[in-house]
Amino acid sequence: MIACLQHPNLVKLYGCCCENNQLLLVYEYLENNCLADALFGRSGLKLEWGTRHKICLGIARGLAFLHEDSAVKIIHRDIKGTNVLLDKDLNSKISDFRLARLHEDDKSHITTRVAGTIGYMAPEYAMRGHLTEKADVYSFTVVAMEIVSGKSNANYTPDNECCVGLLDWAFVLQKKGAFSEILDPKLEGVFDVMEAERMIKVSLLCSNKSPTLRPTMSEVVKMLQGETEIEQIISDPGVYGDELRFKQSSEIGTSEYLVSIPSSCESAYDLYPLISPESIIFA
Q1: Is residue 257 scored above 50 in pLDDT?
Q2: pTM value surpassing 0.70
Q3: I want to staple 126 with a disulfide (CB 3.0 to 4.6 A). Which of 121, 164, 165, 211 is the partner?
């Protein structure tokens, strides 16, 4: 099925090998590893603003294709920096479909056990197993904010009690109109002001506590390109914060659960179904 999904912003599956104990998938080679490594690792890549905007728009286009334009509607369920690979021209390509689910048009949502990465899952999915394509929209929010800020949500350390995550922090600064404080210092003040504000506003709009109020990914693409107006942001992404953190702790039987993104990542790490300490499945 994945081999039939052809889009510039999806990683290409060329073939597979099922011989004896050799179970291999053959994907296209992507020279610049993954987005998480480019943002937080030691890749040495310098992501200028235009490149960051292109990467974010590419992720949005890839998700819009999966949700709305492909022959089968697919919910990825694990959008994060390590699952976005970069080619030699730093074009973004979504990878790792091992958690993906088909979404039938006649069903409003899927009720399923929760699988994904803490810090990137939509609250209604993480707490109730209520899965729609809007769960991917929420995950996109987190990745987009990481691209803008250069901060990892998984490793985010709150500055105060009201900001338990990266989205809370960005929401507070956005309310103050302090957009420049959200942007990655590595940009050294060189960025398109209109594009940056638009990207931040779209990201926060996608984090709405109500999945029905989140835009579709095709709408996100148009807003990022400046083709449509951005709706007013009225939802605080931190509304679910304490409740979600309590559920995560109770599910795994500990008082705290920390998730860290590796300092570097290999493309094969996310392309092959290996057990990852970042991923968690609730029974």
Answers
A1: no
A2: yes
A3: 121
